[in-house]
């Protein structure tokens, strides 16, 4: 199988990944990169053929576990990513498959103690040697407090002495003046997926758990989930818990609207205004060319 030599992504794909990474400050994000492989055969018999990964879309996934240093997804999300790849393939009219995965790391730099999930990446390469990962690092806490966003493309190499080590892959970002339908949908999916995660967390936290201390008995009797109290009344701790959970949920939704949805809406408005100006410019050029052609015909 050809070895991966370079990865190319469009500016729209980079925008989606950067927006997704910046949507949360204290938790990692994860998704799936959709694209295709372009193989380059070499005439050197002692050198392996090269492959270039062309990323054309990003699939946003719902996280089942999200923390500062880890993120997990369910097998169902992987199935939905394959379904999304088939939709993008029909839209673009060319073969699209899963080629890599994006993630993020917050509050520390990308190179800090090599936290690029090299073991996870190595396990993914067992299925396809060309599979790669993209890490977007933002909210870096450097000594000079420099605000920056760093993106790193990598694979893993199994070193017999040191174990899995990081292997950096050249990354190229290509300009993209048009915005495909799947790109617009990915931007919308960022806020939609985060909202679904917040609703799920609030629903789980709303389950009232009543602990009963028992000196004897099994551990199964030590915790009883009481979703419908028999007396119809809630205790003061339960009321305080629900009030606190509702406040945290409301704060999360407000932050989602303020930091993600409103900026995305403003960006869409600005892009729409730019498109209208471009349409007017092209129409004026068309009218001017038509007048020049008519004048030339009269002269002839």
UniProtKB/TrEMBL annotation:
User: Domain JAB1/MPN/MOV34 metalloenzyme, which positions?
Assistant: 4-121
> Which InterPro entries does the annotation name?
JAMM/MPN+_dom, JAMM_MPN+_peptidase_M67A
Annotated Gene3D superfamilies: Cytidine Deaminase, domain 2
Gene Ontology MF term list: metallopeptidase activity
Which top-level group of life is the source organism from?
Eukaryota
Q: Which protein are we looking at?
A: JAB1/MPN/MOV34 metalloenzyme domain-containing protein
Which organism encodes this protein?
Answer: Mortierella isabellina (Filamentous fungus)
């Amino acid at each position: 199988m050809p070895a991966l030599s370079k990865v190319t992504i469009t500016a729209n794909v980079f925008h989606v990944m950067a927006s997704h990474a910046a949507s949360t400050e204290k938790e990692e994000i994860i998704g799936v990169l959709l694209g295709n492989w372009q193989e380059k055969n070499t005439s050197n018999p002692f050198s392996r053929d090269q492959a270039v990964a062309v990323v054309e879309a990003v699939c946003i996934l719902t996280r089942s576990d999200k923390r500062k240093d880890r993120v997990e997804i369910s097998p169902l999300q992987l199935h939905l990513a394959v379904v999304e790849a088939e939709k993008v393939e029909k839209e673009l009219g060319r073969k699209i498959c899963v080629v890599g995965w994006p993630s993020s790391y917050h509050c520390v730099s990308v190179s800090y103690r090599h936290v690029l999930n090299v073991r996870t990446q190595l396990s993914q390469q067992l299925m396809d040697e060309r599979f790669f990962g993209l890490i977007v690092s933002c909210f870096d806490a450097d000594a000079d407090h420099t605000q920056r966003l760093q993106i790193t493309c990598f694979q893993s190499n199994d070193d017999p002495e040191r174990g899995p080590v990081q292997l950096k892959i050249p990354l190229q970002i290509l300009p993209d003046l048009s915005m495909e339908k799947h790109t617009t949908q990915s931007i919308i999916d960022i806020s939609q997926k985060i909202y679904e995660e917040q609703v799920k967390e609030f629903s789980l936290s709303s389950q009232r758990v009543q602990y009963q201390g028992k000196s004897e008995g099994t551990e199964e009797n030590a915790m009883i989930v009481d979703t419908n109290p028999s007396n119809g009344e809630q205790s003061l701790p339960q009321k305080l818990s629900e009030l606190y959970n509702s406040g945290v949920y409301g704060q999360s939704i407000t932050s989602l609207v303020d930091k993600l949805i409103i900026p995305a809406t403003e960006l869409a408005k600005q892009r729409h205004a730019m498109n209208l100006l471009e349409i007017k410019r092209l129409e004026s050029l068309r009218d001017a060319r038509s007048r020049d052609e008519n004048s030339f015909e009269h002269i002839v």
